[in-house]
Amino acid sequence: MALPRTAVLPAVALPLVATLPAADVPSVVSIDVFLSYWWIFPASVLFSTIAISAGVSGALFFSPFFLFAVGLTPAQAIGAGLLTEVFGMGNGLRSYVRQGLVDYTVAKWLLVGALPAIVLGAFLAHRIDHGLLLTAFGIGLLSLGGFLVVYTSPERAEAASEYVGGGDGPWGSDERVVEARDGTIYRYPACSHAPGVGLATVGGFVTGLISAGLPEITTTQLVVRCRIPPRVAVATSVFVLAIAALAGATVHALSATPAWYAVGWSIPGVLVGSTVGSHLGKYVPGGVMESALGVVFGVVGLFVLLVEVL
Question: What is the mean pLDDT of residues 193-221?
Fold first, then answer.
């Protein structure tokens, strides 16, 4: 009898597989099973393109997609969403760091709250009842949907928050300065750390639990509360999310058997979609896209809650 065709796990999975207990590692997967999920790739390209263009978290798309379309468990779907997001933000993060737009001092303080919180949230996601996790996921999506509808986007806040140029800024000694590689100097007031750490802690915990929330909370509070220029705020938030999401995804991978047949398609998809989305973003009316996506996420969140209740 002919042996079933098999394939070694995708290369993108190998670093995390090495950290898993031997009993939990699926060393080979059926190539027929893997290929039957080809449709995850075009869906991932689409989701990533929309997310990057609109400036929202890609996990807002991927966790519900993995949960309802692919059929993963809630904890697996959230972990796969975080792992996919880590790879999807790679292009943007590399670009922001190369441009010199990250405020590392602010990022350091945000990580003080976000890192332990996302690890705790990811740990609890595998310890609480699936029904409670679905309820939390539904409430989180509904809340984030409402947040996207009403929040002030970086583009709309730009005029009120940004002072660009040489010389002395309007805040004297109480200011921070970030000089981009293109020579642009961004000056903005120094911001109290405690509220930022608190908000990052909340965002990190929610992200670890339901895979989304940290970038939306962090970017908005940096622009609105701290009056940090939008380009610097977004770059700093992406830097914080990249490190925090990697920690959360690692905890998810160690806590359950990852669905490599799903992320094996979604990771290449987001690498393509993030590249396309970064070029399309300047043509997309941000406020309209954010409001539309907020409605979509609100409807999905409501659907999750109704399914769980009924």
Answer: 84
